[in-house]
Amino acid sequence: MGLFKSEWRGMEKYYSLNLAWPLYTEYRGIFMKTLAVPLTVRERLLSVQNLGEVSVKFENFNQAVEVYISGQPSERSVSRALKPLKKELGREVKWFIDSNLL
Predict the structure, then answer these.
(1) pTM tops 0.85
(2) Alpha-carbon gap, residue 25 to 78, rounded angstroms
(3) Rounded to whole angstroms, how far apart are CA atoms 57 and 67?
(4) What residue ranges define each of the domains in the chain, with the CATH number in brackets?
(5) Which stretch of DSSP H or E encloses residue 40?
């Protein structure tokens, strides 16, 4: 078996992740370092007040994550919200606030 497993229920076939697959942990790590980055950043910023739009930029999982924030949030609250991400994502997180950013 591979990354996905399937099972029949009546006339329908259901697919799910095979958590016992030997490379699952590696694939999950790659996913978390790339595709999940914007979701993780936005989740961390949910508690920040006066937050406008959030844009997340990253080229690959070896480079820093750049977070562009519009609105007028306090720098302290943004810093507190994003500080744990460096350890969580395993890379530098740079953030910028621009009250004129659309």
Answers:
(1) no
(2) 31
(3) 6
(4) 1-33 (no CATH), 37-102 (3.30.300)
(5) helix 37-44
